[in-house]
Amino acid sequence: MKFYLLYHLFRLPVAFVLDALLGDPRWLPHPVVWFGRLIARLERTFRAVFPQTRCGERLAGAALAAVTCAYAFGVPFVLLYALFYVGLRCHSGAVLALAYALDVFWGYQCLAARDLRDEAMRVGRQTERSLAEGQAAVARLVGRDTARLDAAGVVRSCVESVAESTCDGVVAPMIAYAAGGAPLALLYKAISTMDSMIGYRNDRYRFFGTAAARLDDLANCIPARVAALCLIAGAFVLRLPAVFCARLFFRYRPVRAARTFLRDRFKHQSPNAAQTESVVAGALGLRLGGGAFYDGTFERRPRLGMALRDPQIADIRRAVVLMYTAAVIALAVCTFIKLTAILRRFNPAWF
Asked: Among residues 2, 344, 330, 4, which one has the least CA distance to residue 177?
């Protein structure tokens, strides 16, 4: 029982360390790939079954979301429950160890801080070489037309992606894993994958992707605001070295980050995306957002923050450092809450 409780306390830190050390190797099967294949097959199936009307497409999208969520949560839940049940009934330490390892492995795969850092830093290196290489690199992170971007646009796009992914790639799966283990974390990843594949407002997915987009908004409602608060706290932490040596350390602007968050956090068509983007814009002193081309069509969007200076390639690294600092803060908060829950349920002296 002591090991079981300590496992629940430390499984999130272990998963976070594994992500920081290993990232997402290309040769390792990833749950997001499985979800993507399932969503593509279900889309073809339900589009053929349901009528091609507004109501029919909404029903088809809702059916796809229901099946995907049931698969993402049900399969790992049943498998882990079966392993724990067999291990406890048969007093098999090997089976229990397999269940623990599988749970931590899936939790590690749901985190994407290392992969986000690698992709963002690649954009910085490629942009230093040439604008064309930077445009190609940032196209892996954003959905806009990158061929029209200048160097400053590439940097802004990359910083925006890091800011938004701080929620859906780091903090949100971290909260889900701490709350419900691998099944809940994989459920969140499935919802996020659905939104990235069919949650668009174009002609093809305007009605079909409604359920996926609404689920993603609901799943990120609390994590987006938690991530924003962690980014503000991270800006305060990173400001301290600059107080003692401003020449060596970048001066993050935590107060401006908080003000920008309060002013601009709802300036986006999504209720969650601007929560973290506004904080990063204020912390770095940049102006993010604004109009961009998507599939050849220009879309006007509100601007976030104030342009205190021009974007620099170094801002990508600064955004990544802020993201990782916020991730560590979120990790500490989740672990503290988990510890408090364990101590309230069990006698502290029992440990």
From this structure: 330
* DSSP annotation string for 153-189: HHHHHHHHHHHHHIIIIIIHHHHHHHHHHHHHHHHHH
Torsion of CA 266, 267, 269, 272, to 10 degrees: -40
219-236: buried (b, 16+ CB within 10 Å) or exposed (e) per residue?
bbeebbbbbbbbbbbbbb
CA angle 311/195/278 to nearest 5° reads 30
Which residues sit opposite 294 in a β-bridge?
297
Pick out the chain residues at pLDDT < 70. Answer: 1-2, 246-248, 347-351
- The CA distances from residue 311 to 35, 150, 285, 345, in Å, are 36, 11, 9, 50
The answer to whether 123 and 154 have CB atoms below 8 angstroms apart is yes
Query: Which run of H or E residues covers position 316?
Result: helix 314-345
**Whether pTM exceeds 0.85:** yes
Q: What residues are paired with 216 via a beta bridge?
A: none
pLDDT digits (tens, 9 = 90+) for 221-271: 999 999 999 999 999 999 988 777 766 688 899 999 999 999 998 988 888
